[in-house]
Design goal:
Elements lengths: L6 H17 L2 H8 L7 H10 L17 H14 L5 H15 L2 H12 L5 E4 L15 E5 L2 E12 L6 E7 L10 E7 L5 E7 L5 E13 L3 E2 L6 H36 L1 E2 L2 E2 L4 H30 L4 H27 L9 H14 L4 H11 L1
Parallel strand pairs: 1-4
Antiparallel strand pairs: 2-3, 3-7, 4-5, 5-8, 6-7, 9-10
Helix pairs in contact: 1-4, 4-7, 5-6, 5-7, 7-8, 7-9, 7-10, 8-9, 9-10, 9-11
């Protein structure tokens, strides 16, 4: 089987790699982490100019018509550079839902703004008691004549601090654990009745807790059919999960590379510690973990493109294996570097923090092991 990149994919990979090498060093990233916006608007505009925000969208929607493999190439390079820019929150999650559920001028306008880098989005779908279950939703949108009244809370909303527009998953009918009756609404982040508490996660990215109190929404804010949003949400979150896997593989590769280089320069008892057989074994195990994770990612991407009906199962298998590998490689990197690895001044600790976040994002390894078993 041929796993080589196409000419277009190779150009995309080279473009992102060049950006990371020339414009996104560790000091630049830390400046972004410590900024109020938590991302660089100039870089975001550059992503739009280079067409990176168009990659996953069909040509009919004004995009580049890329598939899972193209997103994998992009996200793996993002992982290598620990990019802070909210690509998954905007393009994969919000953009993916708009592309699936939007219609007519609504879809054209919203995707046009998104691909031009003119608007920041956040998808508010998790709740305090949902525990990775997408249809465990208590937030409700009650219909009154031609409007809806939104009430409820959302937790750990990715890009919630910077978002200007929110996609909110709310229940328009049924009980909190029903699969039916879920709808998506577009909400202005500054609308009356919306309260936002923002904070930073351990890897430096931003998130928010959102509270909706009697937020008035007109019918035009409904995205797709009322009560029929779950299938699209599940598919898009799976795509985001696959993107997170690709980012983790990229971050793991750099973490391994930096650890090997460190052992060649760190001298103990008069010799580089790379000469110690015990550390050689540990780094060999890290290499195996990374290669197995890469293989699982490739398999999930191929299944997603060639056999979509089996995509969910393949993605859960990949997320389980890559999650375990992320934790192993990240922990070993820190331990082999020693105490310096947990300081803010060294990037290895930041790779570990990001890998830890990616392991939990969209379901941790235990959740995806159970999900995989349930899909058999």
């Amino acid at each position: 089987m041929d796993f080589s990149l196409s000419q277009e994919q190779q150009m995309l990979q080279d473009s992102v790699a060049k950006f990371v090498q020339n414009d996104y060093d560790f000091d630049t990233r830390m400046t972004t982490v410590n900024s109020e916006a938590n991302f660089n608007q100039d870089f975001w505009n550059l992503f739009a100019e280079l067409g990176w925000l168009m990659v996953p969208f069909s040509e009919e929607d004004g995009g580049m018509g890329g598939g899972a493999a193209d997103v994998m190439v992009l996200m793996e390079e993002f992982g290598k550079g620990l990019l802070m820019e909210p690509y998954v929150a905007n393009v994969i999650l919000a953009g993916g839902l708009i592309a699936r559920l939007g219609a007519g001028e609504q879809k054209t306008e919203l995707l046009g703004e998104l691909m031009a880098g003119q608007c920041q989005w956040a998808f508010a779908f998790t709740e305090a008691n949902s525990r990775y279950c997408l249809h465990q939703v208590s937030t409700r949108a009650e219909k009154n004549a031609t409007t809806y009244q939104l009430n409820g809370q959302k937790a750990v909303v990715m890009n919630g601090a910077a978002a200007e527009k929110l996609l909110v998953l709310a229940r328009t009918s049924g009980e909190s654990s029903d699969r039916d009756g879920l709808s998506l609404f577009m909400v202005d982040a500054k609308a009356a009745g919306v309260t936002r508490q923002t904070y930073k996660l351990q890897d430096g990215s931003n998130a928010a807790e959102l509270v909706f109190e009697n937020v008035e929404l007109d019918a035009a804010t409904l995205l797709g059919e009322e009560g029929q949003a779950l299938a699209a949400v599940e598919a898009v979150v799976d795509n985001a999960c696959l993107a997170a896997c690709a980012e983790a593989v990229g971050a793991m590769g750099v973490s391994l590379e930096k650890t090997v280089e460190y052992t060649k320069t760190r001298v103990q008892f008069g010799v580089p510690i790379s000469k110690f057989q015990a550390l050689q074994h540990r780094m060999a195990d890290m290499f195996i973990e990374h290669q197995q994770a890469k293989s699982m990612l490739l398999r999930a991407v191929l299944v997603s493109e060639q056999n979509p009906s089996e995509a969910a199962k393949a993605i859960s298998a990949a997320k389980y294996r890559i999650g375990r590998a992320s934790r192993r490689v990240g922990q070993e990197s820190v331990q082999i570097h020693g105490g310096i690895a947990v300081t803010d001044e060294l990037d290895v600790g930041h790779y570990f923090k990001r890998l830890t976040m990616l392991e939990m994002l969209f379901g941790n390894s235990d959740y995806h092991a159970q999900r995989y078993q349930g899909l058999n």
